[in-house]
Amino acid sequence: MRRVIVAGGSLAGLLAARVLHDVADEVVVVEPDDLPDSAANRAGTPHGDQFHVLLGLAQQLFAHWFPTLFDRLALDGAVGYSHAETRMFVDGRMRLPVPGDPLMPIMRPLLEWHVRGDVLKLPKVRLVRDRVVGLTAGLGRVDGVRLASRASVGTADLVIDATGRSSRLGDWLLRLDFAPPPKRRMDLDLGYATTLYRRFPEQRLDDLVAVHSLRSAGSAEPGVSVVAPAGPDRWICTVSAYGAQRPGRSAEEFRARCEREPAAGFAALARECEPAGPVSVYRYPHSVRRDFHELRRFPEGLVPVGDAVASFNPVYGQGMPSAALHASALGAWLASGEDVHGYFRRLRVLVDAAWQTSVVADLALPHLRADRPRGHRLMRAVSEAIDRATLTDPIVARRFLDVVNLRAHPRTLLHPTLLARAFLAPTPTRAPRVQHPEPRVAPSRH
User: Fold this and answer.
1) N vs C: which end of the chain shows fewer Cβ within 10 Å?
2) Are residues 203 and 321 in the same domain?
């Protein structure tokens, strides 16, 4: 290919540009944001200061495309933590720890800054500060983009839509006399809040370094909370809830939420550590997916990636891994020589897996006003049985972790042998009481 245009310099767009660099003579990334020259947030990522995590398969893909990335992130304070240092809880009950991928909490601006720097240094990548507002086409295929400035970046053999969940691709297709993709939407009304806390060297919370706490749909306050190091001298803590229970900006409220969190670590954080900044909040109104695979007509020379395809409930950590998987699918499709529908078939497998993981759990939320599909009660019962079994059965816990880290498809959890183990697994009668050791006092600075 001679030239490819990537609309959007998000992580999805940058990863697509990295893959395309290997097959195109020129890759033009069009991005409207002022891009910081440091690890700072930008306008296009209002959620960038919230907790982010790189799941297992995403870590492998990032390391493949950027071999020195994790060494550089470590120098900037980002570190993965082993299963011995982290725990996952369900309603205060601890899942069995399973050796596997380290938890990789990451500050989104730091990751994006490093990836952007690597991509824009590639010899065939060029950045254009502008906004894509439409497409140009001829002979049934897309051959370029329209820019807000009315400038030209030339014709293209391929255009990538990486403009995110607010993508206008459906409108652009209508202007070219193509139908937009069918859209599915699930209203969630999720809110989450994040605060940084001061951390003294090697500090642990209830003898743990990182904690993930799921409060299930049957709890009084469904949601997910996470606490993990954000470098050697900071903790990052995120709490989330839905509807009227969404967290606000009050530091006192944030502290109260930590104190009543049923898992280990959170109350210790509130008791032992000082806030290192204000409470930052973000609201996520709905999940959405665009089913491009259902379109019978679609112009050649155009494909979407990342949130322009599907955007999921962020508490499951699927956003950045999905962007990486879409970029990988893009590379495989280009190597195959198939038409655009071959790419959409690959996307469908990826989106279905992530959608199934999140939607089965989301539909159990009591505040959700949505029609439950046929078979939902059975799927919910299976999901709850698997959740319970991860507390006591190491085989189920291992397979569950494989699915979480995107190494295995969710359907592998439905194998008859695994289901039998899940439904027969013993369940703790109650959550174990969290033992709070005496606070470890920070060394004096004087």
Assistant:
1) C
2) no
For residue 444, is pLDDT > 90? no
By residue range, what is the domain housing residue 52?
Answer: 3-77+108-184+287-357
Q: Clarify whether residues 164 and 309 are in a common domain.
A: yes
Q: Which two tokens stand for residue 186?
A: 């699930």
Q: To the nearest whole percent, how much of the chain has pLDDT over 70? A: 96
The answer to whether the CB of 4 falls within 8 A of the CB of 156 is yes
User: Checking phi first, is residue 301 left (phi over 0); if not, alpha (psi -120 to 50) or beta?
Assistant: left
Domain shared by 137 and 25, yes or no: yes
Same domain, 72 and 129: yes
- CATH label of the domain that carries residue 198: 3.30.70
Which pLDDT value is given to residue 429? 60
Is the four-CA dihedral 95, 100, 102, 108 of positive or negative sign?
negative
Indicate whether 438 belongs to any domain.
no
Between CA 379 and CA 406 the distance in angstroms is 20
Average pLDDT, the chain: 90
Give the chain's end-to-end CA distance (angstroms, integer). Answer: 63
Sign, CA dihedral 39-196-318-34, equals: negative
Q: Choose the final residue of a domain: 262, 284, 306.
A: 284
| 45 class by beta-carbon count within 10 Å (0-12 exposed, 13-18 middle, 19+ buried) | middle
Q: What is the pLDDT of residues 17-72, one digit of tens each?
A: 999 999 999 999 999 998 888 888 888 887 888 888 888 889 999 999 999 999 99
